[in-house]
Each structure stands twice: as C-alpha cells, then as structure tokens.
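Two quick folds needed for the group meeting slides. Do the first one here.
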Amino acid sequence: MLRKILTGLMLVVLLFGVISCAKKEPTKITIASDATFPPMEMVDTNKNIVGFDIDLMNAAAKAGGFTVEFKNTAWDGIFAGLKDGKYDAVMSSVTITDERKKTIDFSMPYINAGQILTVRADESSVMTLADLKGKTVGAQIGTTGAFEIDKVKAASNIKEKTYDEIGLAFEDLANGRIDGVVVDNPTAASYALQNDKYKGKLITVGKPFTEEYYGVAVNKGNTKVLDLINAGLKKVMDAGANKAIEDKWLK
C-alpha cells in the first residue's frame, strides 16, 4: 500500500514538473520581413537576415521573454500572408498609416524615417520631385515612396516606375534608365552614401519630405502577439538600447 502511495506521489511530482517546464517555454513569434531593404533588413554573405529591424526585434524578444524567427518574404503579398496566418507579424520597414490601420494593427512606433529623393550625382538642378518634370522616378511597389510619387506625378508630369525590390530601382538609376528614386531615408543613405557600388554616382537631395514612423504589423485583434512585442520594444527603448542599434546600422 505504501509503495502504491509513493509511486502515485512520484507520478504527481513528475507530472507537475512536466507542466511547469511547459509553462516556462517562451512564446515563439514568427515574423515576415522582405530582406531587400538595407540597412533595415537584408541578407548577408552567409545568407542570414540582418539589419536594424532584426537587431531591434531580437533585443525586444530578449527583454520581453519571447523568441523570434524571421522569414524572408517578398513585399508583394507580405500582408496577404499575414492575413492567412503564415506568420504572426510583419516587421519590414512598415510605415504606420491610417489606411493600413483599417486592416492591420500596429505596435508602438519604433523609428521615424521620412521619404527622400535620390538622383545621380551629376544632376545639379534637382532638389525636389517637382524638378523631375517629364522624367521617370522609381519606387518599390506598394510602399509609401510609391504613394508619394502618386501624389505629384499628374501635376508634375512625372512618370512612375515601380519595382519588386528597391535595389533594382537604384541599379536603373545608376545606369541612366530612370531619373530618381523615392525611398525611406535610411535606405537611401545606405545605397547612395554607404554602398561602394554607388559611392560617387548617387546622391540624396533636399530633406525628407514626409514624417513616417515604422511599426510591427499584426492581424486585427491579435493582442497576444501585439502585447508581447510592445512590452519588449518598450523595455528596449526605455533603456535606450535602441540608440546603439541605430548607431550600428544608420550612421
């Protein structure tokens, strides 16, 4: 009888241990990112996804007690994949807009990155989009850069060309196939000022002409994931740890 009682107690202890271990297992969040947008997200020579967004979210995950996995996902269709449940969130230089808020929820904003114009270095007469009257300007399809061109192209007689990847737009610009590129300021600086391939060939002109904040996107009502992300981001930003990540990737 005593042996049965002891055996039963051992089973209860073991079961409690298994349950406790299961409870301690951190939540895993899968995040989609179009890794073609340096310095925010890109693929390095070892085929790893790296960049500002990746470092920031890894820091948030550590601070917030969850784990994160990034999936390289083409921008065209990235939000459809979110809606279909292929991943839990999108962190890919996503500007928080009222239009997007209609279909997705956003985390707290984590950086301000306005749109800016990039042209060839030998173009001395251009400072604004309006100065490219009758010429062709490129942007990545479905981005706020493309939206800004849409706003002025009719009045300024600008031709718009959109791309699946922003790097293709810069390649066309450098080779004279288009006359300007509109993109987020950090990405413009990465291509025009830091990329050895384009140094001396491309320049950014004027000042950022929008004020835009990036956020992490989740499906409407997914408060479980959103609360975890927000808690982690807040801890990172309250501690000022995001400044070191900015210094690493944006300066």
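Then this one, please, same format:
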Amino acid sequence: MNAVGIPADWPAPANVVAGTTLRSGGVSQGEFAALNLAAHVGDDPVSVKENRRRFQINCALPKEPVWLRQVHGTRVVLGDSALTQPEADAIVVREAGVVCAILTADCLPVVLTTEDGSEVAAAHAGWRGLCAGILEETVAAFRLPPEQILVWLGPAISKPAFEVGAEVREQFVNKGEAAADFFSENDRGRWQADLYGLATLRLEDCGVTRVFGGGCCTYTEQDRFFSYRRDSRCGRMATYIFRSDGL
C-alpha cells in the first residue's frame, strides 16, 4: 500500500500493474475529501485535476488513464493511446502503457489479465451491468480463451451492507438459478446481495476460474473508501490496470 492506493493481490504476470486508490491523499474538500478522481460528481474541477495528477504520480502510471463514460451497460471498447472518454463500461487493452481505469463508489470494479500478460482489461460491474452481462462481454473481447484469464475483484459494497428489493434478485435468478445462493432474505422482507459472489459465479460460468480479491467493503470502511449508498454525494475511487513492458 502507498499513500493513495492498494495494489491488486493476485498472481498476475510481472508486466501487469493493477490496484485501487483509497479516498485519502488528495485535495478535495467536504463530502469529496480527499482523493476524488471523478469529474462528474460536482467536485471542484481544479481539485479533481490535482487529484488525478497525484494518482498518476503515486501509482506510477505511465500516462493519464483512459477514463470511460460509464453508463451501467455492457459495451466493451478496445483501448489504445488515441482513445478518449468512450461511452462504455469495460475496456480491453493490448498495447503497453495504456492505462485502463474504472471509477466506483460501491459498484464492483474488476480487472482482468491473460496469464501471459498480453491483454489486460477493466470492467465496471454495478448490479445492473453485472446482471446484463458486462463480465461475459469483457471476457469475450479477449483473444485468448477464458481458461488463460486471471481476475481481481476490487473494493465494492459487501453483502451485509447491500440491501436490494425482490425485483433485483428476480433479475439475477432469471438469468440462472444458481444466483439465488448469493441472496439472503433479511428481517424486512428484502434481500442482501453478494456482488462478489455473483461476479465470481458469472465468471466461472464463462470459463474463468482464477478469481481473486473481494475482501473489502466500501460502505463500512469509511476511512478508506467512498460509498454512494452511505453518503449519496461523494467522490469516486479508481481501479486501474496496465501493461508495463517496454516502458
């Protein structure tokens, strides 16, 4: 861990660098304190620019990330050094030095790499995108087969903190009955949903079995992470990945 982030804890190839930022280490004030990296949440643009500069320096990024315009959908783009702010919820990169980044504050950020480090990707998997198939679409965008892909699940809201209605559970179960195992009914007649478990299930169903991470909770770990469900108006962390070979 450094001042602004935590590295991904997974057996990725040596040329693959990935991690997630913390909320500390920036200059934003109030509800955005301190390292808010999102330009769309109402924070001071000057502060966001400085936070992004610190992010790039402290996490040793080779360049500014490709920031996606995330819409809770299933579109995946192929990234290169010329790509700027595409509307998509996942990005796959085969070029060294191009940084994929996902902004979250409860939704599940997912990074992926092939075991040879030739392809990397980042995906934004809130419950809507996860249910609709964003992870399956991301895996399908790789040239190598799913059996050669590794995944790290970044910080997201945990099951005890993520209450949803019966309609959310129904959407997942309609896509596969095994999803029911990742919902528990609470004493209010609603459901606690396990994003980490649902994501792992979806990945395993499309052939990806080496899945790591998943031990954090953005909602309860207030000192470390932003949480939209906890605070409504808040900043965003970045989960990033890039190939460092040739740099």
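Slide caption for protein two: The two ends are 22 Å apart (CA to CA).
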